[in-house]
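Hi V.,

Quick status before I head out on leave. The structure for the redesign project is tokenized and pasted below; the design run finished overnight.
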């Protein structure tokens, strides 16, 4: 697709970036009812990414984004005083989707806000519920929406170093089928912090 875009006769600015960082699953309380308890413990995971952007306006860029996310979470869920569910969940997802980036202020636009919508495909996963392997219940596809901030500092006219913070959530489905987790909805957000490098490329006449 990049070849098709850059084949157009214009001097539009393209950007290619690579990010490396860490991701961390985030949870909200399952219920405010004190009789319903859900305790979470998560470990950070490797969260690299790559993106391509094409300038479509003075402040607006559009393109594609690919990211990798790792989940490692333990959940203790008690829907009542007599039932307890212990969940050990690990999964790796590879995400693909469109990316919209907006530069803030005038040149050199050090700050950028971006939005993304990704479809994630399960690479590998393991789920243990009360010492029983229920990995077959992990969903193979996860749709994710999110937003983020990127700060860019120039190294030269065409090379930039960047720091980005992003948050994504899965609004349409859980990461695993609730019937395998004692009807607990495993639907975490995902917070990432990344360090990257970006290169500007202009189309050739």
């Amino acid at each position: 697709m990049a070849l098709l875009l850059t084949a157009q006769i214009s001097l539009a600015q393209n950007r290619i970036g690579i990010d490396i960082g860490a991701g961390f699953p985030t949870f909200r309380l399952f219920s405010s009812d004190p009789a319903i308890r859900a305790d979470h413990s998560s470990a950070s995971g490797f969260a690299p990414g790559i993106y391509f952007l094409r300038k479509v306006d003075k402040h607006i860029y559009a393109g594609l984004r690919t990211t990798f996310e790792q989940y490692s979470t333990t959940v203790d869920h008690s829907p009542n005083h007599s039932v307890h569910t212990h969940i050990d969940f690990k999964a790796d997802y590879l995400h693909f989707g469109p990316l919209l980036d907006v530069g803030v202020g005038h040149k050199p636009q050090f700050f950028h806000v971006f939005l993304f919508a990704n479809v994630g495909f399960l690479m590998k996963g393991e789920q243990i519920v009360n010492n029983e392997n229920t990995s077959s219940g992990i969903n193979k596809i996860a749709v994710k929406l999110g937003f983020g901030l990127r700060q860019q500092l120039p190294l030269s006219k065409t090379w930039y170093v960047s720091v980005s913070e992003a948050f994504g959530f899965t609004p349409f489905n859980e990461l695993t089928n609730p019937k395998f987790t004692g009807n607990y909805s495993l639907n975490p957000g995902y917070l990432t912090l990344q360090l990257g490098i970006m290169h500007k490329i202009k189309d050739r006449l």
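Above is the designed sequence. Confidence is low (pLDDT under 50) at residues 1-11.

G. will cover questions while I'm gone.

Best,
W.
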